[in-house]
Design brief:
Order of helices and strands: HEEHHE
Number of helices: 3
Number of strands: 3
Strand content: 25-35%
Radius of gyration: 12 Å
CATH architecture: 2-Layer Sandwich
CATH superfamily: Fe-S cluster assembly (FSCA)
Structural class: alpha+beta
Distance between the termini: 34 Å
CATH class: Alpha Beta
CATH topology: GMP Synthetase, Chain A, domain 3
Length: 77
Amino acid sequence: MIESVQKRVEAALAEIKPQIQADGGDIDLVTIENNIVKVRLRGACAGCPMSALTLKAGVERIIKQKVPEIKSVEAVQ
């Protein structure tokens, strides 16, 4: 059985969360629209200047690796 895109994105985020939480932050899935994942960064990540790099080089790369249908990952407030 093929898992839904949302379930696979949630599984990828579950793998990523411990590293983000180790730095005092957190990440939540907000929505997936047109294969664009929208996440909310919380805690230390919310105001961190490195959050854009973390999002693109870390989170987006891992999600796209595990869920190839995903086009991009964006942070929302």
